[in-house]
Amino acid sequence: MISRISLFLIISYLAISCTTQNPAEVVITDTNIIDVETGEIAEGKTIEIRDGKIAEIHNSDNAIDGENIIDGSGKYVIPGLWDMHVHFRGGDSLITENKNLLDLFIANGVTTVRDAGGDITPAILEWEKQIENGELLGPQIFTSGPKLDGSDPSWAGSIELTSVDQVSAAFDSLESLKVDYVKLYDSTIPADVYLAAVKEAEKRGLKVTGHMPFTVDFNEAVEAGLDATEHMYYVLKGSSSQEEKITEAVRQGEYGFWAALTEVIETYDEQTAQKTYEQMAGSGTAVVPTLHIGKVLAQLNEEDHSGDKYLDYIGEGIKETYQGRLQAAKSQSQEATQRRRNLRKLFVDMIPDIHNAGVNILAGSDSGPYNSFVYPGISLHKELQELETAGLTPLEALQTSVINGPEFFGVSDEYGKVRPNYVADLLLLNGNPLDDIENTEDIHTVIVEGEPIINDDESTSLLEKVVKR
After folding, report:
1. Residue 204 contacts by C-beta under 8 Å, 6 or more apart in sequence?
2. How far apart are CA 401 and CA 381, in angstroms?
3. Which CATH number goes with the domain that contains 234?
4. Residue 296 DSSP SS3
5. How many distinct structural domains can be found in the chain?
6. pTM value?
7. 179-204 pLDDT per residue, tens
8. Among 7, 11, 147, 235, which is disulfide-ready with 158 (CB 3.0 to 4.6 Å)?
9. For residues 73 and 66, what is the distance between their CA atoms, to the nearest angstrom?
10. How far apart are CA 165 and CA 353, in angstroms?
C-alpha cells in the first residue's frame, strides 16, 4: 500500500511534469523592447517564443534554455512592419515573378501586406494558404481580389459594373473568393454605382477602400462608409472650397481628370480641408498617402535607376512593365513635370494637419509591377522616411504601419505589440528607430511567426540570405 507521503510525492511530481514547459523555440536575450504605441523602451528584457507566439517576456537575470538563442544586447525589438498598399499583377505570365517578390518583403521586415487588387487572384489565394501552412516564406497577405470598376476598366482582371443593380452580384462573387476587403477603382465607374458599392460593403460588414471618381463628392463617399482612401488626390478634392461646382463640371463633361485637379489645387482652402479631415476622423476613414511613389514618379524623367541594386531581384517581365511610366515621364512637358512636383509638395504639406485632426494614416508603398522602381519591401521603409519628412515623429511614422495596419483589419489583439500571446512577427534592429527612422532598414533578425532569419554574417546581406534560402 502506498503511504500518504509517497502518494503526495507522486502527485507533486506529476504536477511539476505537467506544468514544466519545453525549451522555447526562439529566445532573444538582453534586448530593448520598443512599445510602438507609447514610445516607451523596456531595457534588458528576454523574449521567449513558442508555437509562433510570444510566450514570455521577463528580465534577463537568469540563464535561459532555448533551441535558438539570439543575443539581443544593444539591439531593439519592434513588431513586424505592415505595408498597407502593394500590388501583385501582370497576368499569368508574371505569376512566378510576382511570387518571387515575397522574399523582398520578408528580407525588409515587412511581415504583412495589403494587396490592393490585380489580375492574379487565384495565385495570391494559393500563396496565402501556403504561407499559413508554412510551405512558403512570405508575408501575411490581406487581399481585395479583383478591383471593382466601370466598363472597359483601366486594369485587367477588374469586375465591371455599369449599373447599381449589378453591385450585389459583384459582392457575392468577391465573398465567394473569401477576399479580405473590397477595392474600388475610378477609371470609368459611375458615381451612383461607386456610392452603392461603398454602401453594399458597409451592409455586408466588409472593409472598402479605393480611388474615387471625380463625379463623386468626397464627403459623400465618407458618409457612405468608405473605410480608406487610396493616395491623396481625393482628400485634396474634399479640401476644395469649390468641390461641389468642380464635381458638377466633371459630371457634365466640362472637365477631365487633370483639368479638374488643376481647379481643385487652385481652390484648396485650409478651413475646408480642416472640416474634411475632421469628418474623416469622425467617420473612421483612413488615408494611404503613398508619398514615396509620388517622389519617385515626380523625378522619373531625371533620375537614372539603372544602377539600383534592387533591380537584380526583379524579374525581367516586371522590369518591362516599368517602361510604361518611364516612357511617359520622358515624353511629358516641363510644365507637366512641374505640376506633378507641385502636387506632391501639396500632398506632403497636408500630412501634419491630417494627422493632427486624428485621421488614421496607413503606410503603403504602392510597390509592384507597373509602378516603376518602387521596390517591394524597401519602399515601405522609404515611405516611413517620407512621412517623417512631412512632419511626423519617427514614432508616429512607425505607428502608421505597425499600429494602424492591424487596427484597420481588426487584429490589433494579435499584431502590432511585443507582448505575450501576440504573434511573433518581430524585427531585431541594430539601432533605435525612434532616434532615426532609417534604423528600420538596419535589420539584424526578422522573425516570421516565430521563425527567425538571422543576419549574423557581415559578408552576406539579409536580402541575399532570404533570396538564397
Report:
1. 171, 175
2. 10
3. 3.20.20.140
4. helix
5. 2
6. 0.94
7. 999 999 999 999 999 999 999 999 99
8. 147
9. 17
10. 39
